[in-house]
């Protein structure tokens, strides 16, 4: 029985070269999901004013 997890996109065996995916195709599909809002971090969306405040606060460091 294999102890390695399958590719999270297609469930085929992982490739060490493209881990945790099996191929560049699955790696790119995952990246496209992040860019296209297919995945999301739970929580309310940040307001532009909140983002600006955080950026300005970081510049003081």
From TrEMBL:
The keyword tRNA-binding does not apply. Its cofactor is Zn(2+). Zn(2+) binds at residues 7, 10, 22, 26. Keywords: Metal-binding, Zinc. GO terms for biological process: regulation of DNA-templated transcription. It comes from the Bacteria. It holds the Pfam family YacG. One of its GO terms (molecular function) is zinc ion binding. Binds 1 zinc ion. Inhibits all the catalytic activities of DNA gyrase by preventing its interaction with DNA. Acts by binding directly to the C-terminal domain of GyrB, which probably disrupts DNA binding by the gyrase. Belongs to the DNA gyrase inhibitor YacG family. Interacts with GyrB. PANTHER family: DNA GYRASE INHIBITOR YACG. This is DNA gyrase inhibitor YacG. It comes from Erythrobacter mangrovi. The lineage of its organism: Bacteria, Pseudomonadati, Pseudomonadota, Alphaproteobacteria, Sphingomonadales.
